[in-house]
Amino acid sequence: MKKLLFTIAFSLFGVLSFAQIEGKWKTIDDETKQAKSIVEIYKKSDGKYYGKVSQLLIKTGDPNCTSCKDDRKGKPILGMEVIRGLKKDGEEFTGGTITDPKTGKIYKCAITKSGDNLNVRGYIGLSLIGRTQVWQKVK
């Protein structure tokens, strides 16, 4: 009986930890393949997930988001909330947005976890029309 309870508890822990996206993640530049920044993903009291730039790893031209069109316009990229309003839907986190501070463009966002990586998909309209970046867990 103890073995059965242990197995069930261990399996439940594995399932719950598999889907967690909270924590710090290293973003990788698509063109140079270099680490760009560290984004910290956290859950707010509204039950939704958000992510902010907690560290810049490469020097950028302008440290502010001059191309942003919303409340982030002219604000520093460091500390900027780039992921907003994601909700957990099974194994996926969807329903929110992601902002590219370089261009100021806002995309719909979907995130899935694969081991120590996040597959972060930004898209316009349908999820088929977009691109996916792989972010690495910061240990």
TrEMBL record:
Residues 1-19 form the signal peptide. The keyword Membrane does not apply. The keyword Flavoprotein does not apply. Pfam families: DUF2147. Keywords: Signal. InterPro entries: DUF2147. Residues 23-137 form the DUF2147 domain. This is DUF2147 domain-containing protein. It comes from Chryseobacterium oryzae.
